[in-house]
Design goal:
By secondary structure, the protein is of the alpha/beta class. The chain has 15 helices and ten strands. Strand 6 and strand 7 form a beta hairpin.
Length: 403
């Protein structure tokens, strides 16, 4: 293993992908934590996160290890402070009420425009202004910010970018200017980390824009997928990247399985939109990766992502307890498999920065990412896990369980 230079910076950049992306990233990070020597994921110099990646990177920068995140966000019901997926689906009541109150005035304006405009306007042109009464988002992600604020208020953690021992950048998009807003950078570092994560994960249509200091912010993935250039410009020489969303390739799946999967269009609008969104951000990310190689030739960027023919990832039900656990374990195993497959490529790159691959860790046969945990907490978690799994299976058989 090579020796890391004392002034060399190491970093990590995590892309977005909604709850699915966050679960995948946690599983992948558990594998990287386990299999890479000389690299502590909670003691890096630079952290960059977008959308769900902001959620995870903020935890890492605060010293929350991937295994602890696994306990909080995947096992959840067994953890002392669990993150319940239901927090992601709380109706945006305030947004609905504000828009509802606008309707009488909008209706009056539309009627006047239709009845008295000169020249006479058409019906649809006059009443198009009623669309202003539509809510900007269906769900309220304020509960996510509140959860993180509580998590980061614990001893040894902070909700203040300026008090972190390492640099953290949470990227959102300014709705009115279309520019990227790197929270954590000068001019943006006074914003609480929890509020920055809320802004970065405000996916238009699902969540209303987050208003901070009189500006409205939405999901940072609308500008770039990874925003890895932020860490590279800050001097990162080794940047580990995790991108959880890739478009599904039915042709590759056919080659691997010997039978072609059902057409994605047969699965309905949600699947079609998911594939379209994945294809758009994936092509953009590939262009970005090529640009990083040209603009930062002295830096090494190592990317981990799902396989393009992975049906488990593409069709996962993130709101099912068992599926969340299965998805995280699948990401864990896939990442270990990628380290084995790419070992010849990655070892000289990692060695330049004092990092090596633990081949013994890659070959161990373990039932889950937390199988090697020990201690009083984990000894108590495992039987609870088994009981919950059996209970969920029983409820599913009886038709009483809900995903």
């Amino acid at each position: 293993m090579g020796k890391r230079r004392s002034n060399e910076k190491l970093g990590i950049a995590l892309a977005g992908g909604g709850p699915l992306g966050g679960i995948y990233e946690i599983g992948a990070l558990v594998a990287l934590e386990e299999a890479l020597r000389g690299l502590s994921l909670t003691d890096l110099d630079l952290y960059v996160g977008v959308s769900s990646g902001a959620f995870v990177s903020a935890g890492l920068a605060n010293g929350v290890s991937p295994r602890e995140m696994y306990a909080m966000f995947i096992l959840d019901r067994s953890h002392s402070d669990p993150f319940e997926p239901g927090l992601l689906l709380r109706p945006a009541v305030g947004e609905f009420m504000n828009r509802l109150m606008m309707l009488p005035q909008l209706m009056q304006s539309a009627l006047f425009a239709y009845a008295g405009a000169a020249p006479v306007r058409g019906f649809f042109e006059s009443f198009a202004r009623l669309t202003r009464g539509l809510p900007n988002g269906l769900f309220d992600n304020s509960a996510i910010a509140s959860y993180l604020a509580r998590l980061f208020s614990k001893p040894g953690r902070t909700d203040d970018f300026r008090k972190l021992p390492h640099k953290l950048f949470i990227v959102a998009a300014d709705l009115d200017s279309g520019k990227a807003a790197p929270f954590g950078a000068p001019g943006f570092d006074h914003v609480p980390i929890s509020e920055a994560v809320k802004a970065s994960s405000a996916l238009p249509g699902l969540y209303p824009p987050a208003r901070i200091d009189g500006r409205d912010y939405v999901d940072g993935a609308l500008k770039k997928t990874l925003h890895a250039s932020i860490a590279l410009k800050e001097g990162a020489k080794l940047l580990i990247c995790v991108n959880p969303l890739v478009p599904f390739d039915a042709d590759l799946a056919t080659q691997a399985q010997g039978a072609r999967p059902a057409p994605l269009a047969d699965r309905g609008l949600v699947t079609v939109l998911s594939q379209t969104f994945r294809a758009l951000i994936y092509s953009r990310m590939k262009v970005g990766m090529e640009r990083y190689a040209r603009e930062f030739p002295d830096a090494d960027v190592v990317l981990f992502e799902p396989a393009r023919d992975d049906e488990v990832i593409f069709f996962a039900n993130i709101f099912s307890y068992s599926d969340r656990k299965r998805l995280a374990e699948h990401a864990y195993r896939h990442t270990l498999s990628e380290l084995r497959r790419r070992a010849a490529e990655l070892e000289p790159i990692l060695a330049r920065h004092g990092v090596s691959i633990d081949h013994a860790a890659l070959e161990r046969k373990t039932p889950s990412p937390v199988a090697r945990q020990s201690g009083r907490f984990w000894d108590s978690v495992q039987p609870v896990q088994a009981t919950l799994g059996a209970l969920e299976a029983a409820l599913g058989r009886s038709g009483a369980g809900r995903a």
